[in-house]
Amino acid sequence: MNDQLGGKVAIVTGGGRGIGRGIARRLAELGATVVVASRTAADLAETCDELRAAGTVEARACDVGDRNAARQLVRDVRAAHGAVDILVCSHGVYDAESPFLELSDEQWERTLGINLHGTFALAQEAGRSMVADGTAGRIVIISSINGLAAEPDCADYNTSKAGLHGLVQSIAYDLSPHGITANVIAPGWVRSPMSAPYLSEDILSGRQKFNLAGRVGEPADIAGAVAWLVDPATSYVTGTVIPVDGGQTAMLPMPGSVEG
């Protein structure tokens, strides 16, 4: 462990598993006090047990789909630790089996409520805390390349992720006078419990090439990008969407590669 982030307090939502857990691990290894948040107590307990050796990691149960609960999470962390220096929103829900004409109002509202509205509440409360404390904070939102181009049968997810890109640009603009940066990381396919049902053995083995890297991403790949963005030295990067997708968005489909 080094102390690149020594003395910093970080909140990582969606930290109970997958990408969020990988990010929490990396920030703890860099010396931050990391508060992981998730709806599921069992996932939180597992994360804390797994990351115990990495550094200081605490758990907070929170349903970020409840905007009041999301704001209270930030207030509680600030009250307990004196400040919030870093916010990483890595929570989200995804369902790739809902064609547009069959998408229900309930699913639309649930997806946007968690993925977009919950992120708004967290970022707003964290921004208020950072401004009040004079903290040159870092806000990082984990989006998806679905915010850059559409995937079939998940208009709710695609829209929520595209919305995050506009949100972060607005946050970056409005909070720039306070020295606060805000950025988006847009992952491609990453090995996680959420993506597991959609990753075939051909994809996992590399036999089916879908990006330039020729492999599925790992949570550590996203965590490395987060670590760079929250580094105190990375103050010149803000309002930016950074794809971390193995080059998937750099490719054009060839004839026969897209199913009709």
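^ that was protein a. below is b, sequence first then the tokens
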Amino acid sequence: MNCKIILLLVVVFPFFSDGQTPYMFRDTSVAVFHGSTRLTNPWASGMNTPVFAEIDLNGDGIMDLIEFDAPSFRVNPFINLGFANKTCYVYAPEYRPVFPDILEGWVRTFDIDFDGDMDLFSYFGGGISFFRNDISAGNGLFFTQISNSIQTHYGGFQTNVYESRVNAPALSDIDDDGDMDILAFSISGSWVEHHENYSMDSTGTPGQMKFHNIPICWGYFVLANNSNVAIMPPVLPTCPLYMANPYSRMFDSEEELVSNDHPLYQVEKGMRHSGSSLLVFDSDGDGDKDVLNGDILGSNVLYLENCGTPDSAWICAQDSFFPSYDVPAKMLDVAGPHYFDGNNDGKRIL
């Protein structure tokens, strides 16, 4: 079956004083061309800094796609027609009103309660907001806000999982114990903090949010302060000193934090590096999570290989022009790596 191009045009006529009745209709026959090329989904608007995420919009069991455009706070939904070995998404603006109007910065989806429905996460106020997906046959797609600030424990100190509007975290089951963990950049944006979820350990169910910070930089690497490359072990044998610091949350802003004279804060001050998009996945099938990172300081995509274990990450190699074995990715702005099955062949692609 060929993938049909489906277009949507909404025309709204104004009210007239002569009593004419306004009406609205959809015309799917209007084609848009660039030269001789017919455009697919031309009415989906432009994409300035797109962030993509998988979610089943219509409950048919096939993963659809949403695109979030941060500058305009706009969600663009696309229905996956599901044709095998074909990339065919249809713009579906009727789903836009379903999404929360407070999304900001970035979006991520992850099935936190493992009920088969992708839940929604976004930036909010220096942290991460969480919206549970309560889709049902009767009500369709529906989100319930559970938290506007996911909490974590730093020893005996509880605070929000810090995240920046310009640093997108990775949500993944890092230790393969059946619940969602969080990898997020520190307040400096230079190294990654691991917030391990103890939901399965403490309750036996995955849907709870019982996060505890693991007080070392995950993977024992930091980002350079002038490019999208990593400084890896053993160059930084003192990496455990770069631990997540709960006292940093006692300051009102990053500016106040990095102006402090304490030596630990000077580490943050010397390595400020915000503006990254983080993705983790098991690229080599060895059971631990590897890293892809896009960054404001480079047009490249950085790949970091994990030679550790699911419980103890250790970055051992990097490819700063990923994929160097093929055509390296190069973006004019921040490269945002994404990982999903875009052509319905049963395999995820980058």
